[in-house]
Amino acid sequence: MEDYAYFLNKASEFHGGACVGLALGTRITVAALRYLGLDPHQNNRKKVIVYAEIDRCMTDAVQAVTGCSLGRRSLKHVNYGRFAATFVNLETGRAVRCTVGKVFSAQGDKDDTLREIAATPDEDLVTLQPVRVNIPENDLPGSPRETAICTSCGERIADGRHVTRNGAAFCQACADGAYYTLLESER
Predict the structure, then answer these.
(1) φ, ψ of residue 69 in degrees (nearest 5)
(2) Which of 115, 123, 127 is nearest to 83 (CA)?
(3) What is the pLDDT along the chain (187 residues), one digit of tens a residue?
């Protein structure tokens, strides 16, 4: 478990402290990388894409251990609200979905829970499910392969995320409504 301590420390520095979610995220990340034949001690951000199914502490562990990030387009957020992530080896195409097969209470003593997580063998803690992931060309890391300009607001839309209506390109906010409301300028 020496490796686990090293990676948990790395993730804790990135996250700002250790917690149950971070510890479990560290365990599933290391297990997934090894399953895919990748060395977790190497920077794998160009070799792997990760689909995180939650936007909580686990995702910081994934980012700290793999080097993947939203900005590098190698970390994808799929908002299912589940403590799971799918890791895709870009060199081989192999993919594995990882979950935690044991429930730990975040309400108990944190240090006791962290020790229990560290002591639990991978086969009793981590569930690895081989899966197939078809990654669209527009979701791959690197420069945008497709861009458009919104007919309504004039903003640039990258990575094929535009909506076409009556032959015109629109950003999703203009086409279907935004998560924000523009305010009148304060003068």
Answers:
(1) -155, 160
(2) 127
(3) 568 999 999 999 999 999 999 999 999 999 999 999 999 998 888 899 999 999 999 999 999 999 999 999 999 999 999 999 999 999 999 999 999 987 776 677 889 999 999 999 999 999 999 999 999 999 999 899 999 999 999 999 999 999 999 999 999 999 999 999 989 876 5
3-class DSSP state for residue 133?
Answer: coil
Residue with tokens 């995180």: 52
- Integer Cα distance of 122 and 29 in angstroms: 11
Place of tokens 């894409």: 49
The answer to whether 21 and 100 are in contact (CB under 8 A) is no
Contacts 24+ apart (CB under 8 A), 133-137: 133/49, 133/51, 133/86, 133/88, 133/95, 135/49, 135/88, 136/160
3-class secondary-structure state, position 85 = strand
68 with 94: CB under 8 angstroms? no
